[in-house]
Design brief:
Length: about 290
């Protein structure tokens, strides 16, 4: 009996055919019912410079703003200055009729910023008349949450954006020592601290312009950077799902600092490791991902 006859004999065997059918059915159902790979977004651990960035809106203001008040009860003559006009130190900017004409003079050279009272008429002692300041000497005041302010130090570099032009460099000059309560747009009371930033303003920026500030509170070169979106809590630890041979492997990691897009990684992964971003509850240890 040659091999062809042996093969025909085996094929005609009823038990063999039943077994082969069962095997094919099992293979079919295994393939059909096996878990499908979960589609995920992934990122990579990379080496680079870590920067702890604190972002907040700010407002420009003249460093030295002088408000001129009425020194007496009298009658104010009409103020002929206008907002934006330059004034020189010692120049008369307002006159009040008292027992004699009392001249109000500019204490510094600068620009008229605000006119509180323009029309002629009776005026009381202490009433504001106008504000004067040097618009070439501006600073930025931004109000940080107290938990963010503890990371900031005088001298920290700042990038100023959102004013309508190219980014400008600045530097933190002062963190005020006392916080204050501010109600957010959502109606939540927040404790905030005012931070003052020095910068060299372009001519297009004036007083009370809104800007966006990015304060570099901490910087570390040649560091392992992990996408922050990969992190999730595993009890008291931070963890990620590392992609290894198409499967998700839960890995405990140690993080020194977190800031927006990147976190400073100290232990658990290596440069080039692939991790799952925005992990959901659907992903478990050993789950197939693509």
């Amino acid at each position: 009996m040659d091999w062809k006859e042996s093969a025909i004999t085996i094929y005609k065997n009823r038990i063999f055919r039943i077994g082969a059918g069962i095997l094919l059915a099992v293979l079919f159902f295994w393939w059909f019912l096996k878990p499908k790979p979960i589609t995920v977004e992934t990122g990579f651990v990379a080496k680079g410079t870590y920067e702890q960035i604190v972002e907040e809106d700010g407002v420009t203001r003249v460093k030295d703003r002088f408000t001129l008040y009425s020194p007496v009860n009298g009658v104010l003559q009409r103020v002929h200055k206008h907002v934006g006009e330059p004034v020189q130190k010692g120049e008369t900017v307002a006159i009040i009729n008292w027992d004699y004409d009392r001249k109000i003079q500019a204490p510094v050279s600068g620009t008229v910023l605000t006119i509180h009272r323009e029309s002629a008429g009776p005026i009381s002692i202490g009433a504001p008349i106008l504000d004067i300041g040097d618009t070439s000497r501006l600073e930025i005041a931004c109000e940080l949450l107290t938990q963010d302010s503890v990371e900031v130090r005088p001298g920290n570099p700042v990038i100023i954006e959102g004013w309508g032009g190219d980014p400008i460099s600045g530097k933190v000059r002062l963190i005020e020592p006392a916080a204050f309560t501010k109600v957010s747009s959502l109606g939540v009371e927040e404790q905030r601290v005012r931070v003052i930033i020095d910068f060299d303003p372009p001519s297009q920026i004036g007083d009370s312009f809104q800007v966006k500030t990015k304060i570099t509170a901490f910087q570390k070169e040649n560091s392992l950077l992990l996408p922050t979106a990969a992190l999730f809590r595993d009890q008291k630890d931070w963890a990620v799902y590392r992609v290894q041979k198409g499967k998700a492997k839960k890995t405990i990691v140690k993080i020194e600092a977190k800031s927006g897009k990147w976190s400073l990684l100290t232990e658990g992964l290596q440069d080039g490791d692939e991790v799952v971003l925005y992990p959901t509850e659907e992903i478990k240890e050993g789950a197939r991902v693509k």
